[in-house]
Amino acid sequence: MPRTSNAVASRRRRKKILKSAKGYWGARSRLIATARQAVDKARLYAYRDRRVRKRDFRRLWIVRINAACREQGLSYSAFMHAMKEKGMDLDRRALADIAARDPESFAQIVAAVKS
């Protein structure tokens, strides 16, 4: 029986890699070995940074809440502690949004927490 090259499947695999590497600079978009390395690294970065994005947003929300709290004469940590004591369940994302878009409402929340 003659040997076969399985060319259809091989070509399909390579084209899939090159399609993923489209737009990469130089050999990274043209040569299969280089493109495979570039695509693998890009996928690793994408996987890692989906998690890092969550951390970055949490940090941003904390900064925004802290800035709004300081305007009301309260620190972030004291505000969050008072929120927990009062049993108010607003997450940082919602608080940061309120602080940025509607300072009057945030001032009311702070006043409710302080009392």
Short description:
With 115 residues, this protein is mostly helical. The protein has 5 helices and no strands.
Describe this structure in words.
- It is built from five helices and no strands.
- It has helices at 7-20, 32-71, 76-86, 92-101, 103-114.
- It is an all-alpha fold.
- It has a single domain, classed as c-terminal domain of poly(a) binding protein (Orthogonal Bundle), CATH 1.10.1900.
- Helices cover 76% and strands 0% of the residues.
- The protein is rod-shaped and about 85 Å long.
- Helix 1 packs parallel to helix 2 (32-71) and helix 4 packs across helix 5 (103-114).
Task: Supply the key terms.
c-terminal domain of poly(a) binding protein, 115 residues, mainly alpha, single chain
Structural class by helix and strand composition: mainly alpha
Give the CATH level 1 class.
Mainly Alpha
Q: Which range does the strand content fall in?
A: under 5%
* CATH fold-level name: c-terminal domain of poly(a) binding protein
In helices, the fraction of residues equals over 70%
Low-confidence stretches: none
Give me the strand/helix succession.
HHHHH
User: What is the β-strand count?
Assistant: 0
Q: Given the structure, what is the number of helices? A: 5
Topology:
Elements: H1 7-20, H2 32-71, H3 76-86, H4 92-101, H5 103-114
Helix pairs in contact: 1-2, 2-4, 4-5
